[in-house]
């Protein structure tokens, strides 16, 4: 797995956009007590279910790879000249 430039910032952006997407899909909002791990896994599974990202192999499903998938997803959603992609 190749590290993406600004991956941490992209992941934060992916969580924000993903939460908004989930709310628009009718899911309840994440509570303040939900951990980042729970949000990442929930968003990953929602995007896989909606066929917006390719699922990981079952043996590769872990937090690190899910984070990476979310960062890749959001990097493709942002405009080419976005500051996080520079």
Secondary structure elements and pairings:
Blueprint: H1 7-24, H2 36-49, H3 63-77
Helix pairs in contact: 1-2, 1-3, 2-3
Structure summary:
InterPro entries: DUF5062 (IPR032036), DUF5062_sf (IPR038316). Helices cover 55% and strands 0% of the residues.
Could you explain how this protein is built, in words?
- The protein is an all-alpha fold and about 90 residues long.
- The chain has a single domain (about 1-20, about 35-75), classed as Uncharacterised protein PF16691 family (Four Helix Bundle (Hemerythrin (Met), subunit A), Up-down Bundle).
- Helix content is about 55%, strand content about 0%.
- The chain is built from three helices and no strands.
- Helix 1 (about 5-25) crosses helix 3.
- The model has no long low-confidence stretch (mean pLDDT about 95).
> What count of structural domains?
1
Number of strands: 0
What is the CATH T-level topology? Four Helix Bundle (Hemerythrin (Met), subunit A)
Provide the CATH architecture. Up-down Bundle
Helix content: 40-55%
Structural class: mainly alpha
C-alpha geometry: globular
Looking at CATH, the homologous superfamily is: Uncharacterised protein PF16691 family
Report low-confidence residues grouped into runs of 5 or more.
none
Strand content: under 5%
How far is it from the N-terminal to the C-terminal residue, by CA? 20 Å
pLDDT averaged residue by residue: 93
What top-tier CATH class fits best?
Answer: Mainly Alpha
Largest β-sheet summary: none
